[in-house]
Each structure stands twice: as C-alpha cells, then as structure tokens.
Specification:
Structural class: alpha+beta
Distance between the termini: 43 Å
Shape: elongated
Helix content: 10-25%
Number of strands: 6
Strand content: 25-35%
C-alpha cells in the first residue's frame, strides 16, 4: 500500500512561515538569540555564571566537562546569571537556552 501525502497549498505554507516569523520576532528576533554557549571554571562554592541572553533562560545543559564532577544549579536563574556549583573543580561548557 502506498503512502498518501496530502497536498499542501502555497497559501498554507506561507501562513505557517508567517506564524513562525511572528513567534521568532516575539522571542527576540532570531533563533541564534535564543541559545548561548558559555565556558566557566566552577567548583564546590557557588559561582554566578554569566550567560548573555538578556532574559531568564528556560534551561541549560552541560555539553563538555574536564573532570569527574556533577554540576547543578544552586540558585535562581536571572536575566544575566546562572548560579552553578559542582562536586569538584571543573571547567565546563554549557548550552543555555
């Protein structure tokens, strides 16, 4: 049995693109403005890591670490910083979104 794919009109495609553009504009103008890559040296005491998004992030994740350590957020994120603490001294690279 063949897969049947419904035909989408140019008008429907344009409406979807317009909706996407409105969403991007509402969130700061570009997708690139919604993600930051940050390098930081962290340790067992809290460090406020600057992220540069100029808004409170939705979240973050470690994408590289040079030590056997766990890393966690140790306070409330703000429009400029994420308070981070680690179980041991480590250099980290985080993706902030």
């Amino acid at each position: 049995m063949a897969l049947v794919v419904p035909r989408v009109s140019d008008e429907e495609v344009q409406r979807a693109l317009d909706a996407l553009e409105r969403k991007v504009d509402a969130q700061g103008g570009t997708f690139a403005a919604s993600v930051a890559i940050v390098f930081a040296a962290v340790g067992t005491t809290e460090k406020n890591v600057r992220h540069g998004l100029d808004r409170v992030p939705i979240g973050w994740r470690v994408i590289d670490i040079d030590a056997a350590a766990t890393v966690h957020r140790s306070g409330k994120m703000t429009a400029s910083v994420i308070p981070i603490t680690a179980s041991a001294t480590a250099n980290i690279k985080i993706e902030v979104f």
